[in-house]
Amino acid sequence: MGRSAVLLGSRRKRLLVSFDGFRWNYDQDVNTPHLDAMAREGVKARYMTPAPLPPTGKYIENHGVVHNMYYNTTSRVKLPYHATLGITEWWDNGSVPIWITAQRQVMLPQPHRLFLLPRGNVTYQGAAVTLSQKEGVLHNYKNETEWRVNVDTVMQWLTKEDLDLVTLYFGEPDSTGHKYGPESQQRKQVVEQSIRSNHLSSVLSLIVTSDHGMTTVNKKASDLIEFHKFPTFTFRDIEFELLDYGPNGMLVPKAGILEKVYSALKHTHPRLHVYKKESFPVSFHYANNPRVTPLLMYSDPGYIIHGRINVQFNNGEHGFDNRHMDMKTIFRAVGPSFKMGLEVEPFESIHVYKLMCHLLGIVPEPNDRHLSTLLPMLRSGSALLPSSQPLLVMGLLGAVILLAKVA
């Protein structure tokens, strides 16, 4: 693997890798020597606050991907997560992810490829990547053999095929965190395994981050948020519902009774926060989009929203208010573009889009943030000098936004 890395050309090369659900402190109770070395030799953030994906540099209400699953409130159609990954109209909302921007600009005519990337099989404004591999419905994210094969394939693309931009996705430690809970021994083991098993060469420049954290689910019967047990609420008043997807929910009341439904729900549970669309907290950067329903809600960390029946039994969950520490993620960066031994204050992951454009030497699409936040971590001239090593970015491309992924 070391020899393969040396073969990489002098053009800027970027490999984006996602470790799904890597909470900011997952490296503190297990042995992660590679992350520790990155902190010593490069840049480390105390933690990073997750922002919406895909990586367009925009908040949810501006890029329009407001949920993990496709839905239509008029037809009442709802599609599961894996089916949604192939619905172009859900993802293509006038914003394009960084890999499409890169293809359109200086990196052409070099081909760009995506490997095992969620949403990699859809087009944006008619543009598609050269190659993408879809996840199967029952895809096993814990297959260590597959991890090794995938990394070998990516290294071939970067070396023998001399590609400029490749992305790679790992579904762990998210799946284990959902099943066993974020404090479980199983989760601790898979974090070590995830870092160790990717066996990406130490000569690569790296950015390691993730899409969200994970918190333990409260399963005490008296604390459950169960819509089917609320005495003042009835589903007969509802035209469309989107519940049972973690800590978030949406409702379309029947005509003329929005106020009735809102009044019935707003004080039903101390851990449930129900809003009319126009009153939803602006700080979430979420509600100002036509896809968002007239009533929406979220629950406190650790509390899951159950609809008509209880169908969620995860021990760990995400998608809660990203101000909560369990939702924070990691950020490490090391390589020729980054300063050494620097610890920076926390920042939002939405800034990383501008950082990537800067490092790739491309002009970013219109976006909601600016590069100045992350410039202090870069060496002088970092975007102007061609690197003799590829940049490896772990974690911009995991599961979706504020809303919980269907595990």
TrEMBL record:
CDD domains: Enpp
SUPFAM superfamilies (UniProt xref): Alkaline phosphatase-like
Gene3D superfamilies documented for this protein: 3.30.1360.180, Alkaline Phosphatase, subunit A
PANTHER family noted in UniProt: ECTONUCLEOTIDE PYROPHOSPHATASE/PHOSPHODIESTERASE (PTHR10151), ECTONUCLEOTIDE PYROPHOSPHATASE_PHOSPHODIESTERASE FAMILY MEMBER 7 (PTHR10151:SF63)
Record-given protein name: Ectonucleotide pyrophosphatase/phosphodiesterase 7
Species per Swiss-Prot/TrEMBL record: Prolemur simus (Greater bamboo lemur)
Gene responsible for this protein: ENPP7
